[in-house]
Amino acid sequence: MLNNQQASFEKFKKELNYCYEKVPFYRKHLDGAGTHPSDIHNIADVMKLPYTEKKDYRKNFPLGVLAEGYKPNDIRLTRSQSSGTTGERLITVEVGMLLLNRAMKCARVNPAIEQAIFNHARKTCRYAAPNCSDVECANPNSTMEDRLLSDGTLVLPVYHDLLTTSDELIERALEETCNYQPDLYYIDPTHFAFLVRHARKRGISLPEAPVMGTYTSPTQYSRRQIAEAFDGKVALTQLLASSEMGWLALECPHGGLHLNTDSFFLEVIRAGRSAQPGEVGELYITSLDNGALPHIRYKTADAVRLLEEACPCGNKLPLAVMEGRMMNFIKRQGRYIHSPYDIDQLVGAPDWLDQYQCHQLDEDNLVLKVIVNEHYQEGDEQAVLDRLREALGDSFSISAEKLSYIATERSGKFHATKSDVTSPAVFGETHAC
Ligand SMILES: [Zn+2]
Fold this sequence. Notes:
Elements lengths: L4 H18 L1 H9 L21 H7 L16 E5 L9 E5 H12 L3 H7 L6 E4 L25 E3 L11 H14 L3 E4 L1 H13 L9 E3 L6 H10 L6 E7 L3 E6 L5 E3 L4 E7 L2 E2 L5 E8 L10 E10 L11 E7 L4 E3 L2 E4 L1 H8 L5 E8 L4 E8 L8 H12 L4 E6 L14 E3 L14
Parallel strand pairs: 3-4, 3-5, 5-6, 6-7, 17-20, 18-19
Antiparallel strand pairs: 1-2, 7-8, 8-9, 9-14, 10-11, 10-12, 12-13, 13-14, 15-16, 17-18
Bound molecules: zinc ion (ZN).
């Protein structure tokens, strides 16, 4: 069980009652499953409740899923949309104040981030796929003023397909960053690693500020490149957030990813049961604050692994590892075999590596695509291939390709590990995953 799950369970029951009474979708959803809030007496009973998925919210938005008393155009609501990682984009709303509270509770684990985020005069530079914001940052003709948001965020210009970004646009992003002197970088790790590589090539030092990486999980090579760009004085901080729910987990200065169990009732589900510490499972989230668009047992399609140990930072919020989007796992015979996090641990961050993608083509074949730099010597990738082959076993055929370009996904995100095996998969009882 998660550290303070009992305390959040009391709030869970209130949220469940609230949903049943105030949200038309939930009454139908629970009645349809033959369950009622009064059936839920203890944490184990939570498993009796049906889960919810993205499609439930998409299909019933706005009137079915909005709580009584809220209208879609309510001025208290903040509107956001997902980047469409799995295809269709999802529009969602929540009370702005509640999203802020969730972020505040989560930010407590990292004082530097907390200070930067809640500084009212803050200046943030955002560098991520164009879909991740509402401004036209991919338009080469846009000006800095066009991309400056009312909250002090400067959205830096970048192409939708990251590695095709022109030199002109890269130089503009670097120049704007130096002129703007941000006190926070709010970035996608792959995107920002690309930008700092180009800064170093041009001998440009970017202004020092905390770097918060979200949208996709950081890879080791992106952490290395970002640390190098700031001469080791700045390290990337991982934020796990979703457009629907806000801040779910944040990395502390000791490198621990702390789950925001103050704001959410979190479950890690594996093969129909709660995962034990050390096991990988799917993250299910329940909101606890009686908001405008509450979520009950929301399946995220993200996999995490709970850790049992206490964090040296002293914060009691539970620790987890973000293993990756489940669709990106290496799969075989209907089972998840290796997570993107696993693969990244195997690849590591050798100095010759600028970027990679481990791409599972089918049940038996993987290709490791690498983009290398001036430190590369013929055959350097062999050691990485050896580690992958040892971990994945002889039955996989793994080849390497040296490239100068790897495409991003349709969403504009870049997945360091991806799989074309789309048949349904489960977490096994015996495998590493
Ligand atoms: Zn910690």
